Amino acid sequence: MCAKVSVLVLAILLVTSLPAAAEKPYAGPAEYAGGDRQCNLQGHDCLCMPLDTTWQVVNFSGAAGCNGPASPTDPCRRNDDDYSFVVPLGFTFDLYGSPQTEVYINNNGNLSFDGGYCTFTSTGFPVAGYPMVAPFWADVDTRSSDNNCGVAWMKQGPNYLAVTYDHVGYYGEPPHTDLLSTFQVIISDGTYELMGIGNNVCFCYGDMQWTTGDASGGVGGFWGFPATVGV
User: Any residues with CB less than 8 A from the CB of 18 and at least 6 apart, and which?
Assistant: First the structure.
């Protein structure tokens, strides 16, 4: 089943208490580099923008202080909880009247505007200090070397940025690949025809198979503190 959500004005005022942080032990980013596996372009028929060779792997920063950061030697930038280097948009994105010209792509299924964000357990919105667009904020884990597992991709045009989380698994030790999810977010200046003129956020979903990582109280990909979706 396909789902597409275009958002012009979306206000989510649900506020929940922040769950206690879980510990995630790691030996270092190179531990999960994943060998020589290629960065697979898989995608899904339900994506608004199909994946093809014009997309590029998101350049995650290997941020200090994040769990399981990407290894600088891994061309697929597989990681858990990392965020990208700052991405200049090349257009102005209007976030509730606040103009944004750059963004961070976070591995945990969201975009943030005031800095990278590696918190893996989602809460209700708003999130103090981190204005966010979240197609699926949850504990995404792409460290597995399994060939059926994907990574995060991005594509930019003069008036849009698209990010696809392609067949991504959820956090565990080792990373879980029994259930995989594919989803996409597009932001624009409101002139991108694919989204409909006047709309500036679009969420698209392929096959969604899990909601919760182990460190967020999940069991088998569910229960605990499940994913948050919204703006």
Answer: 123
